[in-house]
Amino acid sequence: MDLAANLQSVRQRVAAACRRSARDPAAVALLAVSKGHPPETVAAAAGLGLSLFGESRVQEAKTKIPQCPGRLRWQMIGHLQSNKCRDAVSLFSMIQSVDSLPLAAEIAKWTGHFAKTMPVLLEINVAGESSKFGCPPENLLADIRRFNALPRIEIHGLMTVAPFAPDPEKVRPIFRRLRDLKEQCESILGAPLPHLSMGMSGDFEVAIEEGATIIRLGGALFGPRGRAGLPPGRGEGGA
């Protein structure tokens, strides 16, 4: 693995996608998906200038984060179970995978316990895949005010995991739909939602063209990390 070369390539591709869509590359945050990688790999990535990292499993993050450079920011990108909310609130600077009102309420309970405010993204199952977590779009629009009313929860935007497709153009409508949903939520709330977390190693350029502000990259940075039954890098949350 040549992490430096991979990162340089990713940054060039991000810049090219931003040129095509008349966007500022500084408006696109690169989140390094470090699940399954040891603290030494995280430290190497941090040494190259990366500061935002994503984990999908609370237990792995709980062990790994204390062994990594202290200046890094960590976000939860995988499915979060209610019984892991206490640890998630204490470990992460943002939870991207809030997919239901009960989960959001449980997070709000623990933010009160830790006397902190938690920025969150609402995870939306845009494609309606039965194998994926995420709030259905129609539920989002019906419940967005209730999400927003929870104490110590700050909704910063939306997140989605697009279906796997060898041709990233096939998932462009998914990203476009998430952007449209964000705009509808902004209209309902009368306030801006700054973030769209969408795009992974196989489709991040299309996601940027459709407005992504956070891209979640694992394989493009660290190399393949496949699991049985999944294409390399397609774990829940992003890679």
Descriptive account of the structure:
The protein has helices at residues 3-20, 39-47, 58-64, 85-91, 101-114, 137-149, 172-189, 204-209, 219-222, and strands at residues 29-33, 52-55, 73-76, 94-98, 118-123, 153-159, 195-197, 214-217. The protein has a single domain (3-222), classed as TIM Barrel (Alpha-Beta Barrel), CATH 3.20.20. Strand 2, helix 3 and strand 3 (73-76) form a beta-alpha-beta unit. It has an eight-stranded parallel beta sheet with strand order 7-6-5-4-3-2-1-8. By secondary structure, it is of the alpha/beta class. The protein contains nine helices and eight strands.
Keywords:
9 helices; alpha/beta; 239 residues; globular; TIM Barrel; eight-stranded parallel beta sheet; single chain
